[in-house]
Design goal:
The chain is of the alpha/beta class. The protein has 18 helices and 13 strands. It is globular, with a radius of gyration of 22 Å. 38% of the residues lie in helices and 17% in strands. The longest helix has 22 residues.
Amino acid sequence: MSVSYRQPGVVLTDRRFTVPLDHSRPTGETIELFAREVVAGDKAHQDLPWLVYLQGGPGFGANRFVGKGGAWLGRALKEFRVLLLDQRGTGHSTPANRQTLPLRGGPAEQADHLTHFRADSIVRDCELIRREVTGGAPWTVLGQSFGGFCTVTYLSTAPEALTAAVVTGGLPSLDAHADDVYRAAYPRIERKVAAHYARYPQDVERARRIADHLLAHDVVLPNGYRLTAEAFQSLGILLGGSEGSHRLHYLLEDAFVRTSGGTALSDAFQEEVQGLLSYAGHPLYALVHEAIYAQDARPTAWAAERVRAEFPQFDAAKTLAGDGPLLFTGESIHPWMFDCDPALRPLRDTAEILAARTDWTPLYDPARLAVNEVPVAAAVYHDDMYVDTAHSLATARAVRGLRTWVTDEFEHDGVRAGGPRVLDRLLALTRDEA
């Protein structure tokens, strides 16, 4: 049963779909998916083409817009009905977290369950939903970040379902192992940190002081998160967004307070940090993040942690023994997170099993992409902190007919920060209008 209601300028319809957990067993166990249909109020009764939005992540539900929402949604509503899909395990879809995964059994059973939460399963979900929503007519897909990874999988497996495909900050390498991904990532992260310190040189000493405090004290945040120096460094994930450097700066300037027992990290600082670091709202991001790069018999084996050892400049203790700036890290998952975060601790053994898995299947079909006929356009952000630009451009060359817009005007969140301009330009590229 669907429910429709209004917000300023739009009509929303909440929709639910039942899909197989394992698409290779269509009569087996099922899960529920949630999606929100959005249409402009003055077009609610028109027969419009559909655009399905695939959120970044993995592990995040679709955006919760208010009204036309600004950003890209207002532009999309000029000509589309939009379906905001909560990918399996996220948002209002059947959840997968520390509370629900034990229903599957022990860590081995939980890990087996989570193998069905990658791009291949998400695309198959979309195909079942499309037949119900559009009556079988093709639709346009907009994939942001990991949603772009899913879009390339879509082009590999069901291109006949797509009128056009638009990717923003999410062209994956077709063949890079997780080790390759992180080996390319750490130098980009270092550049982002250097740019931050060039903008806010006062943050060099602030960051060193905080890290030094954390090396000397056992700090547990109000939600039970153990804040270590490494965990503090992971706040560098902010630096991949358009406002991230400024947010990090304002966070650092409010870190300490004088108390009767001496200097301590302020309640305000701790409250904001725990909101930024906790995976309670998106545990799949931590659990299957490295698995989105797995396509063969090689285990991911905590790639980000292993590769980080090749870049000793990221070691906080070594940095503080000298006088250099502390380096933050970025979009990487580490085993210590499953010790620090109370939302992840019960899932540590499950994560270990996933990291050791050796039976991953391919997510992309280079041969099919080489003969692609779907109009595709992709925004590639110059020196994107989250997705390697060189990897993206190599993939762009491997997909027949794909047109790129390479820009340094935006960071990874350009489709949000750029308002309607990013989607408008990419749609024009798919139509040979730009």
